[in-house]
Amino acid sequence: RALNEALRVQALRTGAAWIDYWNALADADGGIRREFAGEGVEPNEAGYDAMIAAIEPALRARRL
Hints:
Layout lengths: L1 H13 L6 H5 L19 H17 L3
């Protein structure tokens, strides 16, 4: 959580776009939800689908 917040703040400071995958992937304990990473670390196909859903609005807004 702290790393995610630090990255968000850094993006704001530098004017970079910020896509928050945390809210799309995290469980109540702060880890990646089981359905998004079978082994608990790397996203699986469902995890990447959740990431796509998180980034699509920003890409569409920028017509990318």
